[in-house]
Structure to design on (346 residues):
């Protein structure tokens, strides 16, 4: 097993059975070595600095009805909201004053009529904050919309593929959504010059080791600039309300494998990881992550962006908790970087 980890470090890829063996491994020494090599790789390329991204959840209205998501269209108990452009710009101004140089605009998936207003918002942010990167995470859109957002000033886009297995994808999403279309969107984003992110949940309902191997092979081939990995956490208003949460251990080993596969990738320690475990963020960083995303959204709205139960959005998970976050990072030997922090070509 140690040989497999060294091989992944050197060659940045493994055969399918190699990934399966790492994912199924239960030996503590081996897993410790995997995380050690991943952390060393992240430090070699990024130092002991962790990039911060200002997360702005611009609205929880969504046209989709994904079976795992708390803001699904079928959740009629949720109070819906959409931030106005002025509210979003106020979040950006506050974040910029705090030192954020990347803003992440995230929302439920909107109809095509929302594309031009979003492009106008991106353009306004880019005009006022030309020293900042703008990342979008707003779902599947048309090629024309992606190109319009790109012209307006967005440079990064996160669209998790969720699972590379078609049958598993169909079990997580309603009819009318397809893995084929999701992958077409990812290819389009790459073609348009975005720094493109993808990823999946660890422990999503019905997920097997074989599914995760397919995910890793897809990421290896796609070569994204960002990868979002977090544990599945159930929401009470979904069909998977009683499904157990994903494993911290599996999430950490996926982070480490991806760091060794893509040494220069932007790899967040997600809010879901911090929600699952009090020191989940720190453990994610020690497993190879190099990005955290404190919440810049208006405090009164954060609880309404209700993707899963008990989502962490206060303290070190909030933009106002930067001092607390820095103290937590200092304790494990890291500091906050206020640079935009791009993907490293290595």
């Amino acid at each position: 097993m140690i040989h497999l980890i060294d091989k992944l470090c050197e060659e940045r890829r493994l055969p399918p059975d190699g990934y399966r063996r790492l994912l199924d491994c239960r030996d503590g020494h081996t897993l410790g070595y995997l995380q050690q090599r991943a952390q060393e790789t992240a430090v070699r390329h990024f130092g002991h600095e962790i990039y911060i991204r200002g997360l702005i959840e611009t609205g929880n209205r969504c046209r989709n009805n994904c079976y795992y998501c708390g803001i699904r269209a079928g959740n009629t108990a949720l109070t819906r909201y959409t931030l106005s452009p002025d509210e979003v710009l106020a979040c950006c101004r506050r974040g910029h004053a705090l030192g954020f140089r990347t803003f992440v605009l995230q929302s439920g998936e909107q109809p095509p009529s929302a594309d031009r207003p979003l492009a106008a918002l991106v353009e306004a942010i880019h005009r006022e904050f030309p020293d900042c990167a703008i990342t979008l995470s707003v779902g599947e859109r048309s090629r024309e919309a992606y190109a319009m957002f790109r012209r307006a000033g967005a440079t990064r886009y996160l669209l998790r593929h969720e699972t590379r297995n078609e049958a598993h994808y169909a079990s997580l999403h309603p009819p009318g959504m397809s893995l084929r279309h999701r992958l077409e969107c990812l290819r389009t984003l790459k073609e348009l010059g975005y720094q493109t992110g993808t990823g999946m949940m660890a422990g999503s309902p019905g997920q097997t080791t074989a599914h995760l191997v397919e995910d890793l092979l897809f990421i290896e081939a796609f070569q994204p600039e960002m990868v979002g990995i977090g544990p599945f956490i159930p929401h009470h208003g979904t069909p998977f309300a009683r499904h157990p949460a994903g494993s911290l251990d599996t999430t950490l080993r996926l982070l480490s494998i991806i760091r060794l596969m893509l040494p220069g990738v932007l790899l967040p320690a997600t809010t879901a990881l911090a929600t699952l475990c009090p020191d989940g963020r720190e453990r994610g960083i020690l497993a190879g992550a190099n990005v955290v995303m404190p919440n810049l959204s208006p405090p009164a709205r954060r609880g309404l962006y209700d993707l899963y139960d008990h989502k962490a959005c206060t303290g070190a998970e909030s933009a106002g908790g930067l001092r607390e976050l820095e103290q937590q990072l200092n304790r494990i030997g890291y500091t906050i970087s206020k640079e935009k922090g791009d993907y490293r070509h290595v």
In short: The two ends are 25 Å apart (CA to CA). The chain has a mean pLDDT of 96.
